[in-house]
């Protein structure tokens, strides 16, 4: 194994471990927070006045499921450089009164969250994770919970009873996708079990945000173990790689920012999503802390750069006709720069040029993605962010198969490539000169 290969392997293993510990967006934010704290980052509260210092490193969370971390240079800063990804993945949210009894069984009543690939959720061990809200003497507190065992399964209907199953079958979430929980009558309600797992009293429960997740661990696949297969690669692969690059880089000219938003899978329009006030308010407060008003913020934003990082579709060997003839990424082919004439992706010639140069300087490969002109593609958070704050922006991602399945497949090398490019991005200073030229130092 060459040195690069062993670094890639190590980086991919770290990602699989991180995903294993991060079954939902609340746990993802908690685990990112822990990594930041270890590196000396100070947590800020949105509800308190901020007193930021030059040379300081900070992070702030919103709703427990979105997070923005940033470091302030020692000298007056010119702009912001951020990589934005998302914490959420398609899944099922457990409804308020979860038990469904019938035919001698208890199933859990669930609602679809995001663009779930329904057929892939059947016949595999599942569990539930998220947070519980509790009554306390002081008021209300929240606690994270992960029922860490193979608790649930969504059994498919036997093929003998559904002869059309292999000819394409239309699933109904309410009928087909409710997981089997217990034999009726269950000894413990689902919430009692969740409370027990969190070591709190069931009678103190006032609320819950719990989601199903796939219990199957991430693993290396392929003859040379060149692939990784895991839950939630979209978008924890980009999130984790950009975080590692962020933590390693030094920058004395721009405020470097790591942003991870919840609710991308449902359109980002929420209190904590990319379309919310979270990013613009944070930027305003950073400027305000150093005596800069709105004028300073506008000038800084015009001299800033956003990388919107969300996974991309690799060409599928069984469906090459679904991809563009030329701009068809391969797993392990490097970081994917995404283009869309209709602006679902923010990339233009200029922002692509900046990113290509960064990859060149980081010594990592890049490739391009454009939709097949007759196949609608996906969307992401870049253009939604641009409607809030509008620096130059590029959309990128890592090539993967089976996007939105509970078990996705990606290249084992690509995360390391993004780590390298992210470190280079955060260490470089981007500035806009009077001719609107982006200067990269
Ligand atoms: Co995504």
Describe the structure.
The chain is α/β, with parallel strands linked by helices and 441 residues long. It has ten helices and 22 strands. The chain folds into two domains: 3-89 and 231-440, Aminopeptidase (3-Layer(aba) Sandwich), CATH 3.40.630; 91-214, Aminopeptidase i, Domain 2. It has helices spanning 3-20, 25-38, 173-176, 190-197, 233-248, 278-289, 294-302, 349-362, 382-386, 414-427; strands at residues 42-44, 57-62, 66-71, 80-86, 91-102, 105-113, 126-136, 139-146, 180-183, 205-214, 219-221, 227-230, 255-261, 305-309, 312-313, 335-339, 366-370, 392-397, 399-401, 408-411, 430-432, 438-440. It has a nine-stranded mixed sheet with strand order 1-2-3-13-4-14-18-16-17, with helices on both faces. A five-stranded mixed sheet has the order 11-12-20-19-15, covered by helices on one side. A three-stranded antiparallel sheet has the order 5-6-9, with no helix packed on it. The longest helix has 18 residues, at 3-20. The mean pLDDT is 95.
